[in-house]
Amino acid sequence: MLSPYGLDIIESCLTCKMRVDRIFCDLNTAALQAFETIKYATAYPKGAVLFVEGQAPRGIFVLCKGRVKLSICATDGKTLILKIAEPGEVLGLSATVSGKPYELTAETIDPCQVNFVKREDFLRFLKDNSDACFKVAEQLSDKYNNACHEVRNLGLSHSAGEKLAKLLVEWSSRNGESAKVEPRVKLALTHEEIAQMIGTSRETVTRLFADLKKRQIVQSKGSTLLIRNKAALKALATNT
Amino acid sequence: MERAIQQSCFDCILRPDRLFCDLPAQALEAFDSIKSLAVYPRGTTLFEEGRSARGIFVLCEGRAKLSVCSENGKRLTLRIAGPGEVLGLSASLSGGPYEVTAETLDNAKVAVVRRKELLKFLRTHREACLQVVHLLSQDLHTAYDRVRSIGLVRTRRPRASRIH
Known about the structure:
Order of helices and strands of chain B: HEEEEEEHEEHHH
Shape of chain A: globular
Strand content of chain B: 25-35%
Distance between the termini of chain B: 53 Å
Low-confidence stretches of chain B: 154-164
Strand order of the largest sheet of chain A: 1-8-3-6
Mean pLDDT of chain B: 86
Structural class of chain B: alpha+beta
Number of strands of chain A: 11
Radius of gyration of chain B: 18 Å
Mean pLDDT of chain A: 88
Low-confidence stretches of chain A: none
Number of helices of chain A: 8
Distance between the termini of chain A: 55 Å
Strand order of the largest sheet of chain B: 1-8-3-6
Strand content of chain A: 15-25%
Number of helices of chain B: 5
Structural class of chain A: alpha+beta
Oligomer: heterodimer
């Protein structure tokens, strides 16, 4: 079947095979059936903006496929990327629950499938389904944990070098790479976007990468980064 | 001045003004049975960042400082929590370690609920679970504000603005 942006659209949550591995989606049958009636399955191309920081909350966006960049913006236009959301995450959750404006801007970085639920429908759904309510609390806890982590990284790191090393250590600990002597990191972001993640300039990130390569701590192969000296990178990350 | 500890949440006159505490009678009764009240002197660490979550701490009276710490021991205050706030909520729900350190700033009266009992309570009392979702949303808003103030405001000013 032809589908937009090359995505294989999952029409029904009841038949979704990935459901069991995802915190929010793994609901009991009754809750899942209720969710099925209020959700709208939509497909977005790369670069689509799901919601903008400061906008009144319209509802939640459950990310089924693809990745989404979550960022905040200063009045002078400077952007800080908080997180790259992965499939299974619920976006716009706290704003939808509290009724306050969205705190972040969400922009797709791949073609994405998103299940949208209107605010009124979602609040009613939460009131009626305690299982879903509990899962939402778990998702919010996870997001709070991430926000604290971000505060710690931004507020307590001394230099851009330390922040970049921390980011690389974090990325290299995913996808079963942590046990390897020389873990590989697939760089899905540009230097500009990495700069926005650690609150520095694109030029600084390019210079820092050049320095890491010169010191043989990392080696780049296309868009893949090979961590050649894990201990040295960790030392940089902890500023020791 | 010494004050008598109010044993039951039903006797608390401040309850209607507090988001978490304003529960229906049945849920409040259940909460009353699982909480234990304690008075902590100023400067007590209620819980420490990185330690596995034991439970939640509902601040009945007094304030607590929430902070995060770097590997080098450098500390950053996240915010000051006031009476009515629930501390250690997200870690208790996720089962991970506490994300922050909470230290009392005054002599504080605290209702403590163990993690296991809290989870059971939330699963059986939907209203309480909804309150928790609201509380977590508020906490998240505050945390994002802090990220914004640290990450976007504390930047180097353009040279031109320093000349004037």
